[in-house]
Amino acid sequence: MYSQPTDLSITLPNGGVGPDPLRLDGLEAEFVVLLFQRDSLCGSCRSQVQAIATRYEQFRERNAVVVSVLPEPIEQAAEWASTYELPFPVVADPDNATADRFGQPVRFGLLGKLHNLLGRMPLAVIIDLRGDEPRLVYSHVGTSPSDRPTVEGLLLELDHKRKSGG
């Protein structure tokens, strides 16, 4: 069962486009889509960000910014952003502090915590930045490496949240 974090703040080094360090209150958007990745070597993670990159203008049309969160040093985040020509921020969370606070699932106990590619499962959340305080309005907690929302699913969630007021 997913336990929503109470602290939605983020301040992480950004290897991609946008402000560095990246803070939610520094984004010019109504929504932020956080994609907590498993590892820079994860094929499903690479496929996900590349699919989002090809349709990124549709996220911007919905006044949303996508942020990929890698459990890697800033150099790896910058290399990933450059290699895949990602039009959105790619932030580094090398100690997994932000991913853990947001509840990114880890399987296989201690072994999974030692090896992100083996243990970390994907997590996608949408945060509504409208209003006085950010609000978590959507989460998709992966139960396997490939269990992640589709690009279309994320766009539909954004449409729904925009129309319903959150």
Could you explain how this protein is built, in words?
By secondary structure, this protein is α/β, with parallel strands linked by helices. Helix content is 34%, strand content 20%. The chain has a single domain, classed as Glutaredoxin (3-Layer(aba) Sandwich). It has seven helices and seven strands; from the N terminus they run E-E-E-H-H-E-H-E-H-H-H-E-E-H. The protein starts with 10 loop residues before the first strand and ends with a helix.
Query: Which stretches of 5+ consecutive residues score pLDDT under 50?
Result: none
Oligomer: single chain
Largest sheet, in brief, is: 5 strands, mixed
Any idea what the radius of gyration is? 14 Å
**What's the total number of strands?**
7
Order of helices and strands: EEEHHEHEHHHEEH
- Determine the strand fraction and express it as a percent band: 15-25%
The overall pLDDT, averaged over residues, is 88
At CATH level 3, the topology is: Glutaredoxin
Number of domains in the coordinates? 1
Blueprint (SSEs and pairs):
Layout: E1 11-12, E2 22-23, E3 31-36, H1 43-54, H2 56-61, E4 64-70, H3 74-83, E5 90-92, H4 97-101, H5 109-114, H6 116-119, E6 123-128, E7 135-141, H7 151-164
